[in-house]
Amino acid sequence: MKALILASLLAFAATPASAAAIVNGSFEAGFDIAPGSFRTVASGNSSAISGWTVGGAGVDYIGTYWQAEAGRRSIDLSALNAGSVSQSLTTVIGQAYKVAFYLSGNPDGGLGQKMATVA
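-> structure tokens emitted (119 positions)
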């Protein structure tokens, strides 16, 4: 069974001495999406979701199809098969950073194990 994963709201924080920021962490800026629907975004598309590059088999960019953790939008990391979103961050060597995000299984994805890899 295909694993469908939904990610919403990414936060990036460093120790108080330094900070780096994730652009568009809650995915609010990007393509228009009709209320109650989603748009499939192909791999390699770096303009559909501001600040993010889509990889793998693509993702579904969710409007109000289901409730997002924050704001109105979220990402289903599997359009038809495993997809990804990525963003390059400027960091300082030796500085500690913390990345946090909310993750939930797609409610339309059926039962079964949901898996994601974070790097």
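Confidence is low (pLDDT under 50) at residues 1-17.
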